[in-house]
């Protein structure tokens, strides 16, 4: 009898815990509109910037070089980014054709790059800079019509209440004070959402570090209570959870898993985003010269759009706040290309037609855009499963009609003689 009673209590507790993690979430009309708008933006700038940038070895430097937390903290004493200009960052994004910025408000080192009142370990109080770059950025973004998302790390390598390295017992770190840590995050998120103008999203990361009760129901609930339109995403590398508004993928297009992050990231029904770095590092890395080419970046963006995902391209600004010229040069060329061809990407949707060997298809209303990123050997491309009647086919950048043939199984577009683009030859199909 006693055993049965204990079993029932156990089951009840499990149900309560499961419910606590999965309380039903109904997004508001504002939130649904924000999701659509987010999908329209297509191209964003990811920024990893923190006191780690000083060491020029990426944002994991404390962990990778086994720097004791108390020594690492000294970096704050000499973080004085006199070259930081919110104006320059926003102009960099705009010139590149990017429509939103996702910036690290706090990374795994636990250092807050904003003026928080709930920890002295922040850029305003702990550095000689004494200014709040996140506020300047939020104001500049609002002025310039660029949307802003804050990256926020759930993982913290330094705080005693997080107790990094502690064994996890029954969903809680054996050391530390989990309630205190959850409360701390809630207080910071409240600051980020209520004090910084125009914030449109929170990009969580680091939850993969431990298998605990993250109190997502409370955290996401709080965010949506403060502002129901805020988009919540979490880079947990899993299928979306209740309360989230978009799903992100790391260093892989949705559906691929070449880097090992997406093995369990089953694609859900939410708006999609994929992130990748401009070289091989997220935070500033002085020795990393594996810069992606213009072509690689345009192809990533186009391939993401064709799979119905936004592309969030990362840079790690230097410790003085400036962006290195290699990034500026490449992105200026990408931006010029986007000025000419962006209408075939912004505001479109993808995935109606599966990716083909020659490229992908995006669409908007009754127009389809076939993006040829690998010109076929044969003098035509075949677009399968086009149901609507095709009325007209041209190059996106020209008005001359191209020959095509529509059959029940798809459309053949003849590509011989067309002037190919250096990065992506776009063919526009008008349907009825
Ligand atoms: O550990 C982080 C890493 O530093 C970086 O922020 C990336 C960005 O997607 N996310 C984590 C690894 O999954």
In short:
The protein is an alpha/beta fold.
Describe, in plain words, how this protein is organized in 3D:
The protein is globular. Residues 1-21 have low confidence and may be disordered. Strand 4 and strand 5 (172-173) form a beta hairpin. It is an alpha/beta fold. It is built from eleven helices and 17 strands. The chain has an eight-stranded parallel β-sheet, sandwiched between helices. Strands 11-12-17-14 form a four-stranded antiparallel β-sheet. It has helices at residues 2-21, 29-41, 61-64, 69-72, 86-95, 123-126, 133-144, 178-195, 216-226, 294-306, 325-341; strands at 43-47, 100-106, 147-153, 168-169, 172-173, 199-205, 231-234, 247-250, 272-277, 309-315, 359-364, 367-372, 380-384, 390-395, 404-407, 410-414, 425-431. Ligand FHN binds at residues 59-60, 205, 235, 250, 275, 282. Ligand FHN is lined by residues 59-60, 205, 235, 250, 275, 282.
Topology summary:
Blueprint: H1 2-21, H2 29-41, E1 43-47, H3 61-64, H4 69-72, H5 86-95, E2 100-106, H6 123-126, H7 133-144, E3 147-153, E4 168-169, E5 172-173, H8 178-195, E6 199-205, H9 216-226, E7 231-234, E8 247-250, E9 272-277, H10 294-306, E10 309-315, H11 325-341, E11 359-364, E12 367-372, E13 380-384, E14 390-395, E15 404-407, E16 410-414, E17 425-431
Parallel strand pairs: 1-2, 1-10, 2-3, 3-6, 6-7, 8-9, 9-10
Antiparallel strand pairs: 4-5, 11-12, 12-17, 13-16, 14-17, 15-16
Helix pairs in contact: 5-7, 5-11, 8-9, 10-11
Bound molecules: ligand FHN.
């Amino acid at each position: 009898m006693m055993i049965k009673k204990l079993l029932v209590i156990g089951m009840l507790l499990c149900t309560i815990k499961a419910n606590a993690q999965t309380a039903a979430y109904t997004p508001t009309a504002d939130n649904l509109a924000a999701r659509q708008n987010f999908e329209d933006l297509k191209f964003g700038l990811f920024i990893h910037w923190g006191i780690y940038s000083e060491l020029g070895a990426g944002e994991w430097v404390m962990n990778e070089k086994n720097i004791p937390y108390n020594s690492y903290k000294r970096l704050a004493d000499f973080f004085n980014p006199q070259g930081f200009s919110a104006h320059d960052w926003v102009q960099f994004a705009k010139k590149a054709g990017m429509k939103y910025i996702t910036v690290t408000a706090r990374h795994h080192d636990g250092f807050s790059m904003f003026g928080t009142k709930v920890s002295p370990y922040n850029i305003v109080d702990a550095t000689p800079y004494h200014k709040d770059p996140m506020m300047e950025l939020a104001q500049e973004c609002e002025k310039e019509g660029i949307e802003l998302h804050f990256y926020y790390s759930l993982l913290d390598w330094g705080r005693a209440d997080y107790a990094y390295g502690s064994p996890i017992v029954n969903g809680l770190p054996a050391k530390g004070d989990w309630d205190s840590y959850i409360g701390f995050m809630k207080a910071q998120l409240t600051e980020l959402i209520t004090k910084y103008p125009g914030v449109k999203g929170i990009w969580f990361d680091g939850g993969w570090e431990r298998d605990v009760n993250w109190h997502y129901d409370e955290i996401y609930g709080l965010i949506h209570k403060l502002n129901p339109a805020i988009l919540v995403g979490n880079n947990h590398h899993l299928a979306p959870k209740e309360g989230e508004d978009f799903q992100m993928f790391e260093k892989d297009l949705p559906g691929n898993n070449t880097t090992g992050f997406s093995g369990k990231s089953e694609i859900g029904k939410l708006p999609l985003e994929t992130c990748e770095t401009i070289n091989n590092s997220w935070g500033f890395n002085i020795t990393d010269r594996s810069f992606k080419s213009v072509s690689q970046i345009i192809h990533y963006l186009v391939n993401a759009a064709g799979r119905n995902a936004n592309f969030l391209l990362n840079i790690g600004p230097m410790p003085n706040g400036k962006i290195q010229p290699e990034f500026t040069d490449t992105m200026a060329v990408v931006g010029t290309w986007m000025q000419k061809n962006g209408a075939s990407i912004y505001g479109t949707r993808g995935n109606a037609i599966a990716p083909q060997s020659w490229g992908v298809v995006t669409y908007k209303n009754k127009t389809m855009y076939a993006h040829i990123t690998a010109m076929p050997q044969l003098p035509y491309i075949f677009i399968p499963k086009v149901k609507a009647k095709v009325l007209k086919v041209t190059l996106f950048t020209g008005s001359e009609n191209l020959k095509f043939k529509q059959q029940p199984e798809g459309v053949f577009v003849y590509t011989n003689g067309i002037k190919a683009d250096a990065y992506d030859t776009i063919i526009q199909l008008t349907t009825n």
